[in-house]
Task: inverse folding
């Protein structure tokens, strides 16, 4: 059950990726604001959703990659970044009629913490609290769950920061960027991503484009045992 | 209004017992800062001194920079927040290791360096009984002492509000604009939510927040602050982008989408708004829709014409007319190749009117000429470093003379490399197997590379000779 993540648009990426790996993805993970160095899903959510539909991967997960120095910063910075992320997801949801929340009611929202970035408690707690308590689309439900993409064994604070989080600020899952055994789908036969001690790794980026010399602009991801990543993504019910 | 009491306290670092070896006492009083800020960041100063005896050190500009401090911003290992510290520059391999000294902790936001690199601006927010007290401190680069400081209290801001402060320098102006994003709780309700671990429903309080912006202006000559001027842009996203020229502040904001928005409003959701304020004023002289993406920390440069360039999506430049708000989007071909992963991107103005832009995730650094639609005049290609997106975002620097581009070494070997800009060929490299995360060139011409474990700071001559290392307990996020 391999999915793709990409900083490019789905509609401009899927054909080469499906051709290279000989499959349709189980899910996509795409960048939403604030991600100042990426093409954003929310900038043209209709075309992106059309691309997802056409790719055969009808599920779209959400990640935000703020300017990385901000992750060391204050609660006000974490709160502002989460506010923009939630707003971007809502704007996409409004723009695409067939874009639905997960049937299980849990949309995982990933914060991108890169290897050399340190995550402060003040930033994380404010970011996660805003995401967890966001009344999405005024539906009276709170379907957003904060999660962390990171390299768990990096020497910078990541696992140690979230280990101090409590209640709704505790992340639901880790998406681990290491190790990278590479290879093609369906991915490694043994589940062996890096882990934090307090939060389970549920998603593993086992193949990264640059490290694995993939020609298409995607990284490869797989869910852990008993975890179906697509169930925690937006669902494109029909072609918009 | 100006706080003389605070300035006095800020100057009293000597009583704290921390002093730069051979330097003047400076920095923010620890008690004052701890008591007053809601942020999570810290700052360290680093004197770029003693270059006279340095073999291979080549000052960046004649007569400039030989004694300028450099400020390190990041997160102390023992704290929940980031800091600013100071250390003495190593004069030789045989010299004593540099000592770092904290300057400020719990900053409300990252510092901002003035265009002429003379001062670094720090913003702090203190919640006081009648509102939020915003303090702007300008640290002098040559002494690391407080050059100017001023405060303003925004009344009626609740104690649990989030206040973001973004200082904006204007080239050729003494006015520093302060863009304030004020986010306050608007409603609170009991919500039922599934526990992520057990799946069981739990009841919790959930808060709805609403943001608007305000402006204030700090006069570097008098230390006076004008404002705050509240803008009627609620509900807005707190995140903004802002830049200034000699007469105007240009500010990008985004309306926060609402659940009940009608279709015609929803159709405009991808747009932001560009508003132009005369410096010192809270009344806009221009406000127009602006094309995507939303403002979110993208690099900005004020051009010699007074217009502002935004580097968006890591590949395109939007040139925004300060006079009309018209936006012209130009692709940067060298940055155009799509990748799976975003890359750090930087854009810096140069004294000759060109801009230096880097995209380490594509292994590219260029010099472009805004006067010729960002025509690329120099294009250096290099192997990808190990962490092209992580902090710090500076992974390639151009020598002040513009003849050499220094970059972090390839992922396989680490170290640093030098490229001749004329030939675009690598002309030097140094690696001891260490992977660095960020690279800066100090005004003296000395290179500073940062890494995750001590010694976190490594200094090199412009010829890539190792000059020394320094320890700090700070995970460095940026250097100013």
Result:
């Amino acid at each position: 059950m391999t999915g793709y993540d990409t900083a490019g648009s789905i509609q401009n990426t899927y054909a080469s990726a499906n051709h290279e790996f000989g499959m349709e993805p189980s899910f996509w993970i795409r960048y939403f604001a604030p991600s100042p160095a990426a093409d954003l899903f929310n900038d043209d959510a209709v075309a992106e959703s059309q691309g997802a539909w056409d790719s055969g991967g009808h599920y779209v997960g959400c990640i935000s990659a703020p300017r990385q120095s901000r992750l060391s910063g204050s609660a006000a910075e974490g709160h502002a970044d989460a506010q923009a992320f939630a707003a971007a997801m809502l704007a996409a949801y409004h723009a695409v009629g067939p874009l639905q929340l997960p049937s299980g009611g849990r949309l995982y929202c990933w914060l991108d913490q890169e290897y050399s970035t340190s995550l402060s408690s003040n930033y994380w707690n404010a970011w996660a609290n805003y995401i967890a308590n966001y009344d999405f689309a005024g539906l009276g439900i709170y379907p957003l769950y904060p999660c962390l993409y990171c390299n768990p064994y990096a020497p910078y604070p990541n696992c140690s920061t979230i280990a101090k989080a409590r209640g709704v600020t505790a992340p639901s899952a880790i998406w681990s960027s290491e190790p990278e055994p590479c290879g093609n789908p369906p991915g490694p036969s043994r589940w062996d991503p890096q882990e934090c001690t307090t939060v389970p790794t549920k998603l593993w980026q086992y193949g990264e484009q640059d490290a694995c010399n993939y020609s298409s602009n995607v990284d490869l991801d797989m869910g852990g045992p008993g975890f179906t990543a697509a169930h925690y993504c937006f669902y494109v019910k029909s072609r918009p | 209004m100006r706080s003389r009491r605070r300035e006095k306290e800020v100057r009293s670092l000597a009583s704290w017992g921390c002093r730069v070896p051979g330097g003047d006492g400076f920095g923010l009083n620890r008690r004052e800062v701890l008591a007053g800020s809601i942020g999570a960041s810290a700052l360290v100063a680093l004197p770029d001194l003693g270059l006279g005896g340095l073999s291979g050190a080549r000052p960046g500009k004649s007569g400039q920079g030989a004694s300028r401090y450099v400020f390190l911003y990041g997160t102390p290992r023992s704290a929940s927040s980031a800091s600013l510290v100071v250390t003495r520059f190593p004069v030789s391999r045989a010299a004593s290791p540099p000592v770092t000294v904290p300057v400020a902790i719990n900053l409300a936001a990252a510092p901002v360096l003035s265009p002429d690199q003379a001062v670094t601006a720090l913003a702090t927010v203190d919640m006081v009984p009648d509102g939020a007290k915003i303090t702007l401190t300008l640290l002098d680069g040559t002494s690391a002492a407080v050059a100017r400081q001023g405060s303003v209290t925004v009344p009626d801001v609740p104690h649990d509000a989030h206040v973001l402060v973004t200082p904006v320098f204007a080239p050729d102006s003494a006015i520093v604009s302060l863009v304030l994003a004020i986010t306050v709780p608007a409603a609170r309700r009991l919500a039922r939510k599934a526990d992520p671990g057990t799946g069981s429903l739990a009841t919790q309080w959930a808060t709805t927040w609403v943001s608007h912006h305000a402006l204030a202006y700090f006069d570097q000559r008098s230390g006076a602050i004008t404002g705050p001027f509240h803008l009627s842009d609620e509900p807005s996203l707190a995140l903004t982008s802002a830049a200034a020229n000699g007469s105007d502040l240009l500010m990008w904001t985004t309306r926060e989408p609402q659940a009940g928005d009608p279709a015609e409003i929803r159709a405009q959701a991808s747009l932001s708004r560009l508003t132009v304020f005369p410096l010192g004023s809270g009344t806009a002289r221009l406000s127009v829709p602006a094309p995507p993406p939303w403002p979110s920390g993208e690099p900005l440069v004020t051009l010699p014409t007074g217009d502002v360039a935004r580097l968006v999506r890591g590949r395109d430049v939007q040139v925004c007319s300060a006079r009309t708000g018209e936006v012209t989007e130009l692709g940067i071909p060298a940055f155009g190749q799509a990748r799976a992963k975003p890359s750090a991107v930087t854009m810096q103005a140069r004294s000759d009117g060109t801009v230096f832009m880097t995209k380490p995730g594509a292994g590219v650094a260029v010099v472009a000429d805004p006067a010729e639609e960002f025509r690329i005049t120099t294009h250096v290609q290099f192997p990808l470093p190990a962490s092209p997106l992580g902090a710090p975002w500076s992974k390639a620097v151009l020598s002040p003379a513009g003849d050499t581009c220094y970059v972090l070494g390839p992922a396989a070997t680490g170290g640093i490399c030098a490229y001749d800009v004329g030939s675009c060929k690598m002309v030097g490299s140094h690696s001891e197997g260490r992977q660095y995360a960020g690279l800066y060139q100090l005004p003296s011409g000395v290179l500073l590379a940062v890494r995750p474990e001590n010694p976190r700071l490594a200094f090199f001559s412009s010829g890539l000779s190792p000059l020394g290392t320094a320890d700090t307990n700070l995970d460095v996020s940026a250097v100013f």
